[in-house]
Protein: Zinc ribbon domain-containing protein
Amino acid sequence: MARKAADAAIGVCKRELIDRGTRAGRKVVLVPPAYTTMTCAECGTRTKERLGLGLRVFDCAACGYTAGRDVNAARTILVTAERDRASADDVRHAIASFRDGGSDAVRAGNPGIAGRESPSETSVGTR
Structure:
């Protein structure tokens, strides 16, 4: 029962965030949290093994990037949202839970290196 209440609370929070963003004239991009702590924000390479919760620093074996685990995940989410927002075909997937009301939110894909520019080429905070 507590799990259902928690899921409902997350849904209400998401809906409220989307509504407030729409009223403010912003586009809300939903990025799935899967693999964000395992993906390098610099080169997009994903680690092969799971990172334990005790490991607080992310070290990329491919490019040598080092950052705090949460900082890396936040940058990965930002890069994923920016990449999908500026996609060539501009096709977005509808969110199933908002079918009835027609949400203005878009869903971004999983983080990865396919079709991704480097974070130094993306400008943070621009539309």
